[in-house]
Amino acid sequence: MESTQFGQPALLGLYHPATGGSSRGRGVLICPPIGHEHIRAHRALRFLAVRLAREGFDVLRFDYFGVGDSAGDSGEAQVARWQADVGAAADELRALAGNESLSVLGVRFGATLAATGNGLPTVDHLVLWDPILDGRAYLTDMEEMHRAMLVDSRCFQRPRQEQPGPGLLGFPFSRALRAGIASCNLHALDRWPSGRVTVVKGGNTSQVEPFLGELRQRGIAVAFRPATTVVDWEDREAVGRSLTAGDAQGAILAALLEGGP
Amino acid sequence: MKERAYSFGESGGLFGVFTEPDVPSDRPTVILLNAGLVHRVGPFRINVDLARRLAALGFSTLRMDLSGLGDSAPRPGEPDLHRRVLADLKDAMDFLAEKRGASRFVVGGICSGAINAHRAAVADPRVVGAIMLDGYAYSTPQFLLRRYGPRLADPGAALRFVGRQVSNLVTSPPAATPCEDDEILSQDFPPKERIAAELRQLMERNVALLFIYSGNWYLYFNYRDQIHDNFPDVPFGDRLTVEHFADADHTYTLLEDRERLFATMLGWMQERFG
């Protein structure tokens, strides 16, 4: 693993070149989740990157502006900036690996950013792990979790009356950021950065088939890989807890090895 | 303020991000540790925000992943967790000494990070300060009175409480503790006498200590003088500062709690080392 800093102000990237002298000449860019989910997913995405590098992929993980180790305050984050960051990270991976072939793995809202980002060039294959399809519903879920946390005696000795502000499950989500998230809706997205999309999802998959149908109508080749491991993204008690990808990791690996539907 | 990521340690397996002020100073360098399994940025990015605010005050900071956590590789050949942590921190201090000319360090962390900060302070004379959030604390009569007194004053509540305890003993596992699912934390505090002896060593070396406790640590700590009552024979003098944020949760999830936390830590750093 090698660290890299790119963009201005600098984003932190962690590059995992193919190991064992068996490069496939194919890059994988990992777009992580945001907010508390970003921290929860770090360990799982590191393991996944190491595994992909062992399989011969050149992999880049990175933090968006105002997230993780990258420059910027959390309160300054904007969706448009994050979308541009995805494109900058893709350029960085191509520069580091020298590959033309690029696949993107997006996780949760990272999947939404990868799909909606104008800065991302056309990519071979887009893999969406537990993607956020509707940004507005995502915000509503987080706001409900936050309100429940304030009155949970396992978190606070006494119920808290928080001052009105940007705080949402530990991170500041400004009005502009919330508006940006709410404006993202993959159901309504006409222009996709790839003609091949794989969805990896555990738990309730009732929304997946209609979504895949929408993609097919746009002429996109789609595949669905269900995972039996259900990641507890919406569990308030799991906030702050490192998550386990379980068999989602195998599903993602298989999708990338296959190269797309 | 400048930031740069480094790989360091004997085999280059340790990873951290170094934050430094625009104008170098001879102030101690801060090392921020993992809280449980959370990678170096800390819960809700606490370590990043703290490092950048410290840089504005003239302090450099390394936020690092201990071996096997975050982006640091496992340390081969050392199965003992305590020795592994000390070896990691020695590597970090050696690296900062060689690369940045650092000679004095303040080590800090939350929960398991606090325990590791204590160990590092005891083991390495280069450590001149330690910040421990939700670290060691031991029961006292006043602690027990505060914890159980309100129940005893209310006969109905006392009966319900005793009933629950008996029921738990018969039918259920012990009550959950904060961070119970974190394997790094599944350890009991060492005997109080050992910690007292180690704190005496730290006082002889004039190490400054900041102990901060959250409301979530109620199973172990519930009043500000508890540490002095735990260790009446340790000559803390003015080298120990204790703060109790009884309203806050273990990882300072609310932004307003985090601001109070930062104000306390930054004020202490300025007062002790500024």
Beta content of chain B comes to 15-25%
- Order of neighbouring strands in the sheet with most strands of chain B: 1-2-4-3-5-6-7-8
Give the N-to-C terminal Cα separation of chain A: 30 Å
> Can you count the beta strands of chain A?
10
Ranges of chain A with pLDDT <50 over ≥5 residues?
A: none
- Mean pLDDT score of chain A, rounded? 93
Written as H for each helix and E for each strand, in order along the chain, the element string of chain A is: EEEHEHEHEHEEHEHEH
Please state the average pLDDT score of chain B. 90
What features would you describe in this structure?
The complex is a heterodimer of chains A (261) and B (274). Chain A has 261 residues and is α/β, with parallel strands linked by helices. Helices cover 36% and strands 20% of the residues of chain A. In chain A, strands 1-2-4-3-5-6-9-10 form an 8-stranded mixed beta sheet, with helices on both faces. Chain A has a two-stranded antiparallel ribbon with strand order 7-8. In chain A, helix 3 (109-116) links the parallel strand 5 and strand 6. In chain A, helix 4 (135-150) crosses helix 5. Chain B has an 8-stranded mixed beta sheet with strand order 1-2-4-3-5-6-7-8, sandwiched between helices. Chain B contains 8 helices and 8 strands, in the order E-E-E-H-E-H-E-H-E-H-H-H-E-H-E-H. Chain B is of the alpha/beta class and 274 residues long. In chain B, helix 1 (46-56) packs across helix 8 and helix 2 (81-100) packs across helix 3. Chain B starts with a strand and ends with a helix. At the A-B interface, helix 1 and strand 8 of A face strand 1 of B.
What are the defining features of this structure?
heterodimer; A: 261 residues; alpha/beta; 36% helix; globular; B: 274 residues; eight-stranded mixed β-sheet; 8 helices; 40% helix; 18% strand
